[in-house]
Amino acid sequence: MKKKLSPVEQFCRETILKVPNSYEMANLYRQSRVADDYEWPDWCDLPRGVINKIYNYDYRNVDDGIRLLRLSVNKKFVNELAAVLTWMRYKTIYRFDDELSMLLSKQSLDGDIPLQLLSLLPYPSMFVECETQLGDDISVGFYTWMEVAFDKGRRLQMLHLLDNGDTRYFNLILAGNLDAAMQLTHWEAIASTESMNNAISVLLNDDFEESRKPPPLDITVPELDPKEKANITSWLNHLLYLCSEKPDMLDMEILKKRRTYDSIGAPKRAATVDVGTRVGTALRKSKKMRSNESSSAAIRESGKTKSVIPHIRRAHWHRFWVGPRDGKRMIILRWIPPTAINIDNLDEFSPVIHDVKK
After folding, report:
1. Counting beta carbons within 10 angstroms of the beta carbon of residue 147, is it exposed (0 to 12), middle (13 to 18) or buried (19 or more)?
2. Which residues, 6 or more positions from 122, have their beta carbon under 8 angstroms from its beta carbon?
3. What is the DSSP letter of 120?
4. Within 94-212, where are the H helices?
5. Distance between CA atoms of 54 and 21, rounded to whole angstroms?
6. Is the dihedral of CA 225, 230, 236, 238 positive or negative?
7. What is the DSSP pairing of strand 311-313 with strand 271-275?
């Protein structure tokens, strides 16, 4: 009996069917890693320029204005195609334990976004199961991948798969702290919309000399939406947990050895990796202990405090002085990922500490 495809895989199949040969074209671009005489960095699987070329391949001999209008009108689908073409190269789904996911969703994200850690994600593209309320809709999780921003920076892209089969796209230019990143991303979205409208008006206006001189942009960036900020914080915390040295999940090297690959090195079948199963179990037990009066009394009698109950210490920044005491010293800023406390075999959940000089 043929195995039923997951919603993640089914969405990919339906998307690919709308653009025949797109998967093969994507692999050709990956082999050369060159598009329009520029190379893109290793951490980016496929830049947006390549996705646009694949989408407009059948329209390559038509007027530039038609291609521009096609991309503008079908922007939602282009985002979906980008998510699918990058995910199919790695075909990995991360399924978080509900208890751990809830804790990560509630954690704050202080200081600058730790870009150095996000570069250590297990794969350049993946699907993360993380239920989120988005207005009247519910997201069951999101495809995520990195894109080049402003030719040099990094943009984290997330395409959420809703329980009704639709999608919702979010992106974040990774710069500074979360507030600054959200403001910059919002500004770019407004500026890009204005620029696109001006470009289209140039293409459609007979008076080219007049229309190519649009008025200066008058952009006011609104206050951050607290709910959107909370959602993005939650998604980032889930990704950062995957960047720790030994998160509670199957070791990636073991997973890679178990999988079979096609001629281009892509996995033949999708893999689902359970994250936080043991940690989640311990956290549920600790909740039961807290609600049980007799257990609480026993803890007090033994001279212990409630702080020893298994829990997850939230991710945070920490500053360290390094160097000889009698010589030149400097401050090192370190990001401490979410850490499991007082859980069996703690060493298996010990996070790695990455230095960020500042």
Report:
1. buried
2. 92, 242, 252
3. T
4. 98-106, 115-118, 178-204, 208-211
5. 9
6. negative
7. unpaired
**Alpha carbon distance 157, 147 (integer Å):** 7
CA atoms within 13 A on the CB side of 242: 29
Percent of the chain with pLDDT over 70: 71
User: What residue type is 345 in one-letter code?
Assistant: N
pLDDT digits (tens, 9 = 90+) for 149-162: 876 688 999 999 99
Amino acid at 63: D
What is the C-alpha separation between 315 and 238, in angstroms, rounded?
11
- Tokens encoding 262: 């096609």
Q: What DSSP string describes 29-48?
A: HHHH-EETTEE--TT-SS-H
| Residue 14, CA distances (Å) to 19, 144, 233, 355 in order | 10, 19, 30, 43
Task: Report how far residue 142's alpha carbon sits from residue 132's, in angstroms, rounded to the nearest whole number.
Answer: 10
Q: Coil, helix or strand for 29? A: helix
Token couple for 159: 């395409």
Neighbours of 199 (CB within 10 A): 18
Three-class SS of residue 334? strand
Token pair belonging to 223: 């206050």
| pTM metric for this prediction | 0.79
Rounded to the nearest 10 degrees, the angle between the axes of helix 7-17 and helix 75-87 is: 120
Q: Which amino acid, 227?
A: K
Q: How far is CA 49 from CA 182, 193, 225, in A?
A: 23, 17, 30
The helices-and-strands tally (H runs, E runs) of the chain is 13, 13
